[in-house]
Please model this.
Amino acid sequence: MNKAIKKAPAKKEEAETTAAKPAKRARKPGKFTFQSVKGMHDILPVDQVFWDKIRKEVLNISDYYGFERIDTPAIENAAVFEKGVGAATDIVEKEMFYIKSDDKLVLRPECTASVVRAYLEHGMTHLPQPVKLYYFGPMYRHEQPQEGRFREFHQVGFEILGSESDPIYDAQVILACYRLLEACKLSKLEIHVNTIGCRVCRPVFRRRLLEYYKNKPICKDCRRRIVTNPLRLLDCKEEKCEKFKKDAPTILDSTCNNCNTHFKSVVEYLDELKIPYILDNNLVRGLDYYSRTTFEIFETGSKLALAGGGRYDYLVEILGGKVTPAVGAALGVERIVSLMQERNPEMGRKSKVDVFLVHIGSLAKKKSLVLIEELRKGGIRVREALGKDSMKSQLRQADKENVTLALIYGQKEAFEDTIIIRDLANSSQETVPLEKLVAEVKRRLK
Model:
């Protein structure tokens, strides 16, 4: 292709944890020469308070549960995903953005394979195991933009690599995701959980599944999946295929003793935590590297997953390392933000301002920046309109900020090192020395 970034053909949508549609805003009429690229979106100032809330809670959760931050490049070798995610998956076949280069490079469509690549490249296998990592960053998939999906989207991920294939780590990853969503003030959460077995027992289930779907009038994508990835038959959202899933064989009837014991332990840990969950026999996830536990978290009534993940005990080996147990999950930040905006719109209001500084005259304006710094040091939040000279227009701005106290700083006050504190609720005012300003404002704000 001649374009700098190549793209795979678009696909029909599937329930992956990607991104959410931001709140719609009225656009003023007029012609726009440039707009954001299709499938990309701007994160506007009005949205940032929600993003900051998520960033803050991610730091709190990761610190408490012992996850350390890792940032991997947005550009990776395509082989990292072709081998790790699976050449026959929709992500690799249809959704990766290829970059024009002598090397086969792509914009990362997900981050777990990138984290494993970094784990191997930087010798983290020699650190005390397990290694617990988290990330927060953009991912890229060429899928048809619609509600809940973007071509550039952001994910938070928790990964636990190394040590034993202990089900307690599966439960801890689920717990970290659940607590993060709770901290973002989301409720009515549903955890769907399943097991997809291991290399020993999964082939048995595949044969049973293929036998069941033999001669069924399934969709075009499912006919392809029968050859490339039969487990994805259970993930199809096409109406003509939904009816067949009800009577399809369940993997729990085919799993080996080790996988049964592992899965039983995972749900027992969830029971101990008193975290509600739903056993979902059709939950297989869309990536080849999963084994045993898979899970997704939804808000009740929604078909878009807020979080999803599971165990991937073979991925480190696939990318060139030794067999290394691992488990992880990712959360779609845009989807979380969208729900936060719907459920808690008051969170998006500007932070409360303590005072508004009104300047009158050139000398007062000149000294205003120093005065603002003194207020900052005193922990007082201040707004101003230093570009406006009219006292009336500045007070009008103060009214829009919903402040109760205005600090009026004129030429006379600048010479005398004083300032006027005006109560905007009742128009009463008092002149105080600048040296007592911080203490007096704090007294009035109590």
